Structure formats: C-alpha cells, structure tokens
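Page 42, continued from yesterday. The earlier attempt failed because a stray header line got pasted into the input along with the sequence. Redoing it now with the clean sequence only.
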Amino acid sequence: MNFQKLKLTKAVKPVNFIIFIFAFYVFISFVFLTGCTSKDNSEPVSRSAFMMGTLVKLTIHDPHFKDETVFDRAFARIAEIESKMTINAEGGESEIVRLNNFAGKDFLRLSSDTFYVLKKAVHYSEISGGKFDVTIGPLVKLWNIGTEEAAVPTEQQIAERLPLVNYQNLILDEQNSSAILAKAGMLVDLGAIAKGYAADELAKIFREAGVKHAIINLGGNILTINQKPDGSTWKLGLQDPLEPRGDYMGIVMLKDQTLVSSGTYERYFEADGKRYHHLINPQTGYPENNSLMSVSIIGKHSIDADALSTAVFLLGLEKGLQLIESLPDYEAIFITTDKKVYVSSGINAENFQITKEEYQLQ
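This time it went through. Structure tokens are written below.
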C-alpha cells in the first residue's frame, strides 16, 4: 500500500462540536447487557452496561487474571464520572449542571475530575482556534440532535444563542479548583471529551489491578491495553461512513493505543429531504458542511483523541491535518464524501489497511 502525506495548503476553517447526551445510572441499578466468565479462564471475559448514553463493553484477554471484581470497580468509576459531568441530571445533581446554573453569577468549586476535563477542553478549544468549543451547550440544546425533539431551528434562534458560545468566557481558577461562565445563559457541554476521560480512567484501574491485555470500548471510543496475549496487535474495524454500524471499510492495528472516530453518520436527523448531523460549528450554529464524512484519531490518551476527533473534523482536511502533524503522539485517518482516504505521516501499512476497493488512499 502506497501511503502518501497530503500536501498542506490554505483552507477555510470549519467548526463544530460533538453532541453527546449522558444518561446517569446509579451503580446499584446497572443492567449488564452481556456477561461471561470462562471456567478455565482461557477465554476473554467481558462485562457490558449502558452508561454515559452508550453501551460500555470491557473485555479482559488475560488467561492468568482471575480478579473479576475489577469490573465492579471500573463500572463504579464510570458512574462517578457520569454523575459529575452529565448535562442532563435532574435537580442540578451534577457539577456541570450546577456550573451552568451558576453562569453569570459566581465561581463554583469543582472536583479534581471535572476541573481536569474542563482544563483539557479549554486547551483543545484554544489550539483548534475555537472549532472545538466546550461552551457549545446552547446550540446543542437548540438542535437536540439525537433526541425525539430534534428540529431545525430558525435563523433568529441561532443568532440569539451564538453570543453565548465562546470558550474564552469560561474562566478557570486553578488555585481554587473553581470555574465560572461569564455570561448568564452559557452552557458547558463535555460530550466531546468526557468519554475519553472515562476510558483513560478505566485503563488505570485495569493496569493497577494487574490486567495485561484488554479492550475498553465506550460506544466507539476504544482503548487497548498492551497487545493481544499472543503478542500480535489488536485489529479493529474502521466504520464505513455510508453503511450500517459494523460494516467496515478498513482495519486499524493498535498496541497500547486508543482509537476515536467522529463522523456525519453517528447521530443525525432528516427534515425536508436534508440530513443534519450532530457536529455543530460553534461559529455558524449549523452542522458543519465540509468534504469530510469521518475523522479517526489514533494516539496515546483517549481524552485527547476524543477532543481531537471533533476538533480535527471541524477544522477540515487541510487545517485538521496541520494540527495533527504538530502533535507527535497522534495520527489521523480522514474519509471524504467522494470515498478518498487521507492519512497523517505516522499512518502506514503496518497500522492501517483499506479493505474496500471503492475507498482510495490518496
């Protein structure tokens, strides 16, 4: 396979933010959708639950690991993170809901978890030139994509909310671990970064417990621990953006890495014959319309890959590639609407292979 690096030229800066709807579940009410325990402990052991608005599946591929209570600790950690960062908790239980309710009023002291994720979100808002914007909440709530209330807002409604979207008006006080939204009506939404943080936290729990081989999957945010037990790399399918879930156009090989994708196929609705996807440009207020169908990020930490998948998509092919090439620990795979595939300089035949002839590497 002949991998080539895209020549960088000037491009229009697209923008956006991912809509991510958290569903808060108390730990004792977990319903494990799948679960298996091998008697001889030679087969993979998996547990699954619906959390953070998605199906979470944790799989240990370690024939020598027997302490399955690690699953309980992992799911409890997800529940803790979700309870702090969901934007949908009733009665203002979550820290993010309280922060949004405090908008234009006062600083709110935050846990180390929430403050860390907010700080990361501001960082990616800055380096993407505002294409990723952690204060996208007013637009997310307006469009409601991914819910039964999804509808195309009026131009006036969008114009009224655009002034409330500006990450520079989220002020962080690191010394006191507190934050404030400068204007009343502003809303933080961590939907494009919180799952990545949760995946990293689960990896910590697994590694501290002695798990040597595992896959953590939070609804498509995938993190691998080391390699497979036989020493080979993990092989993961890369979604075909034009086909139903589970239909892949390529294979990504990972070893102790994370893979996170963002695309127009993930969450959308149709109105008057037009499709509206969930990747909203915080500068225009509309779903971003560029040449991309999906962007997949490969890297070390899932929190960074999660934010980058949104930021890079909204930046567009050329500007997004420029950003990725400036980050030594991260690579990207771009799929355009005409089924062309572009990759960053660290992607090669050893870590990515196209399996469908209609997709052409450029």
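Notes: The two ends are 11 Å apart (CA to CA).
Reminder to self: strip header lines before submitting.
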